[in-house]
Amino acid sequence: MRIDKFLKVSRLIKRRSIAKEMADQGRITVNDKVAKSSTNVAVNDVLEIHYGTRDVKVKIINILDTTKKDEANTLYEVMD
């Protein structure tokens, strides 16, 4: 699955267009490599997302095409 779609489905980023922008600006890494919006992600990949004032590091534990809001956080595990 493309990283921009995963970020939207998992609700780490609210809109796919914003996820695409952030990736194209180099603010998202996959396994310590800068990701483009078209980068494919898989289970066990580690994502780092650099928001304005904070960074979030997560490990992908599941990939689904769609999910409900309550279940979105089951797709990843927050890492320190």
Briefly characterize the structure.
The chain has 80 residues and is of the alpha+beta class.
Overview features:
80 residues; alpha+beta; five-stranded antiparallel β-sheet; 2 helices; 5 strands; globular; tRNA binding; tRNA-binding; RQC P-site tRNA stabilizing factor; ribosomal large subunit binding; S4_RNA-bd
Overall description:
- There is one protein chain.
- The protein is α+β, with helices and mostly antiparallel strands.
- It has one domain (3-79): Structural Genomics Hypothetical 15.5 Kd Protein In mrcA-pckA Intergenic Region, Chain A (Roll).
- Helix content is 20%, strand content 25%.
- It has helices at residues 3-9, 16-24; strands spanning 28-30, 33-34, 46-50, 55-60, 76-79.
- The chain has a five-stranded antiparallel beta sheet.
- α1 crosses α2.
- The model has no long low-confidence stretch (mean pLDDT 94).
Question: According to CATH, what is the class?
Answer: Alpha Beta
Overall pLDDT: 94
The portion of residues forming beta strands comes to 25-35%
Query: Mind telling me the C-alpha Rg?
Result: 11 Å
Main sheet makeup: 5 strands, antiparallel
Query: Based on CA inertia axes, which overall geometry fits?
Result: globular
Q: SSE order, as H and E?
A: HHEEEEE
CATH architecture annotation name: Roll
The strand count comes to 5
Question: What's the N-to-C terminus distance?
Answer: 24 Å
Could you tell me the CATH topology label. Structural Genomics Hypothetical 15.5 Kd Protein In mrcA-pckA Intergenic Region, Chain A
Domain count: the total is 1
Give the strand order of the largest sheet, numbering strands 1, 2, ... along the chain. Answer: 2-1-3-4-5
Number of H- or I-type helical stretches: 2
Helix content: 10-25%
Structural category: alpha+beta
| CATH H level, superfamily name | RNA-binding S4 domain
* Uncertain spans: none
